[in-house]
Amino acid sequence: MSGVMVRRAVHEDVPVIAQIIRKLGWFPHAESESELATERRVLLQLELCDADDSHTVLVAEDKDGEVAGYVSVHWLPYLLLDGPEGFVSELFVRDEARGKGVGTALMNDIQELATVRGCSRLMLLNGRDRPSYERDFYERLGFEERPEMANMVLPLAGSSP
Fold first, then answer.
1. Which pLDDT score, from 0 to 100, does residue 1 have?
2. Domain around 66
3. In angstroms, rounded to a whole number, what is the distance separating the alpha carbons of residues 121 and 61?
4. Would you say residue 119 lies in a domain?
5. Structural domain contains residue 48
6. Which CATH number do you get for residue 111?
C-alpha cells in the first residue's frame, strides 16, 4: 500500500483498534461484549503500555489517514541474551488493507526500533491456521519457525483467553 504512515498509537486510536479486534472474528470474548467494553479494555491496556518504555504500540495509517492496522511489542530483558527480546504480541490489519504492505510497514518499524534498543531478536506467536502463517508472511520478513518449541498457556481465573 503506497502511502502507509506508521506512528505511535494515541488514545484517539482506541475506537478503531477495538473495531479491528472485534472484526477479526478470532476472539469470542471480544465479539460477545459490547463495543464500549472492548474500547474500555483497549484504552486500559494502551495506558499501561504508555506508562513506561517497556512497551510500544504503533498504528499504520493508509493514504486517507485511516488506521489500517496496529502492532504491539513488549521489550523483555533476558539474562541469557546479549540484549532484550522484542515480543510482538499483536499485529492485526483490517481485512480491506491486507496484502497492501500495512503489516510489513509496521514490522519494519518494529525491527528498526528493536535494532536501536539493542535487541538480540524479535519473537512472536502465530497460529498455523492464520492467513499470515499460510502466506508465509513472517518467513518473508526473515522470521524462522522453531519447531522444537511448545506454546504453553496457563489461563488464570477470571481472565479472557
1. 46
2. 5-133
3. 26
4. yes
5. yes
6. 3.40.630.30
The predicted-structure confidence for 75-100, as pLDDT tens digits, reads as follows 999 999 999 999 999 999 999 999 89
User: What's the domain count of the chain?
Assistant: 1
Give tens-digit pLDDT for 108-155: 999 999 999 999 999 999 888 888 888 999 999 999 999 898 888 888
Q: Please tell me the distance from the alpha carbon of residue 41 to that of residue 43, in angstroms, as a whole number.
A: 5
Nearest to 91 by CA among 102, 81, 82: 102
Residue 79 lies in a domain: yes
- CA distances (Å), origin 11, targets 17, 31, 44, 54, 124: 10, 21, 10, 18, 25
Given the C-alpha cell 504508555, which residue does it identify? 50
What distance in Å separates the CA atoms of residue 88 and residue 137, rounded to the nearest whole number?
Answer: 14
How many angstroms separate the CA atoms of 49 and 28, rounded?
24
